Every structure is written in structure tokens, then in C-alpha cells.
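Complex record, two chains
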Amino acid sequence: MSFDTIAVRVKNLSKKYAIYPRPIDRLREWLSRGKKRLHHEIWGLRDVSLEVPGGSTLGIVGSNGAGKSTLLKVLAGTTMPTRGHFEIHGRVSSLLELGTGFYEGFTGLQNIYMSAMVMGFSRKEIEARVPEIIEFSELGPFIQQPIRTYSSGMVMRLGFSVATAIDPDVLIIDEILAVGDLHFQKRCIDRILSFRKAGKTILFCSHSLYQVEEICDHTIWVQDGQIRMHDESQKVVRAYENFERQRRGGDLIRRIEQMGEERSKIEPIALPDAVAKAVAESSQPSERLPHILAVRLRDPRSNEVVERGRLLEDLLVEIDYELPEDLSGMVVGSAIYRSDQIMIAGLGTNLAGMKAPSAKGLYRAHLVLPRLHLLHGEYTLVAYVTDERGIHIYHSKRLPGQFQVDQPTRHVGIIYLDHEWRVNPLPEEAALEYRRRGSGTIAEENEEIDPLAVK
Amino acid sequence: MIRSALLFPGVAHRHLDILKSFVYRDLQARYQGSILGRLWPLLHPLLLLGIYHLVFAEILGIRFAEESHLGGEGWKTTFFLLSGILPWVAFVETVARATNVVVENSNLIKKVAFPSELLPTYLVLVHLVQFLIGLVLLAVVYLIVAGTSPHVFEADGITKPMLRLLYLPIPMILQIVFTAGLAMLLATLNVFVRDLVQLMPLLLQVWMFLSPIFYSEQILENAKTLAGDWILPMLRFNPLYHLLAMYRALFFDPVSTPFPWRSMLVFAAIAAVTFVLGHGFFVRAKGRFADEV
């Protein structure tokens, strides 16, 4: 199959679940012949349309309950859509679960047959692949033991081996790679990649956004039963990640608000005050106190006002503020929050060992961020003016909206760290030492040199 | 509906491998860990036959046939009882278990696109295997009795009782069709009304007492109890009455009564309708199983 054919075509697919408050209501509704309506509806999928080119790998991301699994279940044929239709060209194999049809009284070998048969493969097809399945599962002689004696990891290994040993044109994978040890996970990924190489069409749903980004050509983001975004994997994953962070941030704000209400009743809890302050758009400026007039970002090279930054490129934060009268001292500062309200950095003139002017007047502060260390995503920036110790905040103002950071590289994590790599041959004497002591020395070595490991 | 019901044997045949595995799994699970293991399917009916013969025919001396000076009526008691009990057990166990089979296998239903008709079907086969073993055993004992004392069946030799056994596939096949139909019907209903699985054992017990398994029609006719007034008129509306009439004509009264063709036609019609309805209902509803279980 090649990219120019469509392997999976989904058109206006909707799936409704009828929820009855009590089981008897189903009967009552049915007996009333449509006069009573006692259920409420939940739409697992709403009008989803999608085309997956043959040989491509489609990632599926979304929150729990967004409809990912419903979509995959419909495509795998285990549940019927309420409306709309879909077509899949070629043979489908779905891995909605590992170890489907396993029976614990059977041996591993018997279960290979059992499981593959319920997945729709004939005894002959299975027979030809049994050696390969056993080999991949790495179960060795255990294959002749009943699987009730297996560890859960072993069962999963066998399950994955069976499910992927057969040769489908379209492979549907739902959240199954979170199992087994790392070594086996790696082999699973390798196998999926080899399917991809062999020109199979893959629908891959995972909570591991990293895997989705690595494996999938394009990705859909499912939200409330609809496709919210369908684009290159990287773009979709970024957007989705950002959305999730904001949602979590929102939860945090709610928690803080709740805690605030309870404050009077219980012992004060150390609240992340800065978070609460950042969340509030801006505090009310007082004409008689120091206050911020404007916050903006500039590209230091062109000196133009910008709305987004870029990893490893300079960025300038410009803060205009007014001191209505002379002060003994003051601090101007800025804090950057990720979209989940985690403070990435708090920077103030006091922390930088600088004395900001405290005489009455209008000022323009420039905070230069050379080689911006923020990774892709959306950030909130807050500027503030405080007393000389940085404790009392006279006024804070948020950069309108959020600012986006783009990233041309593939670094992952929370922030970028300045770093460099050096790889050299091991010094002669160290190499000798390892050879002398044989294998297993690494652990000992660590024990010897890690003072924290000693109680 | 009729067309799809007619196509069903083809579907079952295509998935024979799965059915075999299911049956094997079921039998293995049942006898797993027992010392006699695979001997149990044979031992069970053998012991059943021994106990019934001993208790009902010898100790209690219950008779379903007129006494004669030649003796041997005790065996007829045993044949009467077992030719009712064996088919009943096969029927009732299948139906009782099938009621919950879709709900029980929710894992399969939800996670693989899999012809779920195979679930009630394999239960029919599991109990058919055990039923067959029991019937073969019964037939062997029957032939031994017919060969050594033909007068029990009012025959001159073994030929007539032996020839009658050739009819055996007729009630068996019809029973399979009827059982499968009812099994599918109940399996479907139970997905939507889960109370059924609680209710079925009770209903089946009532059905058992309303069926001529432990008594004959004659006993009811002679009874001066409510049973005679109430059960007897209803008897002919009970499908099992017609089914058991066939088995009884094979093992109890193979010579003096003709094979009950009338009952066969009635039961065949009931079985066909039950299967077409049960299968049709199942196939129509199975798309919703994954959402309900």
C-alpha cells in the first residue's frame, strides 16, 4: 500500500451512548413504545471525519474520555456507530488490549492459538508463526507452562507477541505500550516501527506523547468526541500538551481558591502566593505608589515588539513604570510561568545584585534574556515593582495574553540547559580496572563513591 | 431472519477451530486438578446410571411398566428415567449457562471483533459432548439388556430394539437446534435485563417439574391429584414433552409403540421457530453488546 491510496476513510461518524439511570427504565421506555424518554444521551463521537492514507501512521491523542477509545473501538469493529460510516481497506488487526482471550489454565502455547483464533486467524496461519511468537515473547521453556504461573509482565509479552505476529494491513493500537519492562517496551516500539517500514497503516493511540511524536506521521487530537486538530504530529502534540497544562493549571487555581476560603477555619497553609498573584490579571495600580505602565517583548536585534520568542534566541522584556515619589529603594522584577502555572523563573533587580533607581520619575527597564532557555509552549509573563527587599509588591502587571515560544530543535523537558557533550575513550588504567574486576562492577563502584548511599 | 439462520451452520463451521478451543477450554477447566481428569465425562453418566438403577428401580421399586412374570421391569425404570434425565441435563445446563455467557465474556465482546454467536454455540457443544457420552453409555446398557433379556421390551430378539436406535439422531439434532435457539435468545435478553440470570434457575426448575422426566403421562392420567387436572392438559404445549416422547420411544418402549412422528413434527416446528427467533434476535442485538456489557 502506498501513500496515495486511502486506507481508512471515516465519514461523519457519530456514536451515542444511552445512559439509563436505573435498569428498569430501559424496560419502561421500551414498553412505552417511544412515548417516554428515560435515558440521557452521551455522544462518544460527534460527526468525525477522517482519512488515513495507506502506509501512514496516525497518532491519536486526547484526554481520558475524549473519545479516542470509542473511535478505535468502532474502527476495530467491536462496537457499532450510531450514524455515519467508515471503510477500511485491507485486513485489520486491533490491539485494544493485550492478552485478549487468554485463559489462565492453558499453557502459553495453547493461549497463542486461543488468542489468535478469537482475533480471527486460522489455525494454519497461526501454526506458521508460532516459532516467531515464542521467540519474540522471550518466554523460552515457560511457553509450556500454564499462564496462571506467569508474571503479569510475561502475560503482556505473550499478548503483544501474538497480536503483532500476524500480518495485518491496518493495525489499531490502543494504549498498550505502557506495559512490560523497558527492554520489552523498546522491542514493542521497534516492532511497530518495522510495521511502519513495511508500509502498514497504523492507528496509534497513546498517552506517551513522546512516542506519538516519534512514531506518527500525523496526529489527531480528539476532544469531546470531535477531532479538534489534525496536523503534523509535532504541532498537534504541542498544542495538546499546552492545553493539558492549562487545564491542570486551572485545577491548581481552583485548589488555591478553595484553600483561601478555608483559611479562616484552618491553619494557614504555605500557599504558592506568586501563583495566585500571577493568575490575577494585574493588581490595581495606585497612583501614589510605584506602578507599571506597560509590559512588552522585543526582539533585541530588530528592536521590534514581538509576541513570541524562540529557543536559543535573545529576547527582551521591556517594563515601563512610574515612581510617583522618592523611595529609599525599590525592585523591578518579572516572573515567567508555564501554562500550568508553574513558575519557571522569577527574576528581580535585587536578585541580580543591582540597585534600581529609586528617585521619583518614569523608567523603562530592560530585562535581557540571552539565548532564551524556554522550550516550546505558551508562557505567562508578569512584571512587578516591589519594595527594596522584594517582599511587598506595589504593583504587578501581566503581559497581555500569553506568549508563545517556538523551538526549532527537538529538546525535551521543562527548560533548556546550557550544555556540551564530550565522548572520549576510557583512560587506560580505568579500563584495566574494569577488565580486572569483570562485570557487575558498576554497581559496586557506585556504592563506593556515592556518599549518600551510605546510611 | 430465516436466511441468516440457515447460514448459521456455515458460520459455525468456518469458526470450528475457535469452537473446538472453547469446548476444550471448558472441559479442561471443569476437570482441572482432578485425579481422574478426562475419565470424569465417562464416569459421571456411569455413576448416574448405577445410582438411579439402584435407588429407583431396586430399592424404591418404582415401576413405569406393568409387572410380568419374566421380570426385568426394573431396567425399564432406569431407561425411562435416564432417557429423560440425560437430555434434560444437557438442555438445562446449556440454557442456564448461556443466559450469562455474553455478560461473562464481556472482555472478548469489547476488545475483539469476534462473531459472538459462537459463545452460546460453544456451550451447546460442550454439553452435547457430555450428552453424547451419556447416550452412548445408555445405548450400550440398553443393547446388553435387549440382547440378554429381550422380553423386557416385549421383543423376540435384539434386532427390533437395535433398529429403533437408528432414530437417535432425529431427537438429538432437533434438541440441538432448540437448545441453541433458546440459548441465543436468553443470552441476548440477559444483556439488557440482567435479572434473567437470577430468575432462570428457578424457571428451569419449574419447567423440569412440568415436564415428564420423573413421571410418565400415564401416571398423571391415573393421578387423583391436582397434577392430573392441571399439568396433564398443559403437557402437550410443553416442547419437552414431544422431545422426551421421542427418546422414550427409543429407550423405553422400542417395540410395542411406533416412533412418535407427530411429536417429531411438532417439536421440529417449535425448534425451527425458536432457533430462527433466537438467532435473529441475537444477531440483531449483538452490535450493541459491546456498549452494554
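Note: The CA atoms of residues 162 and 418 of chain A lie 45 Å apart.
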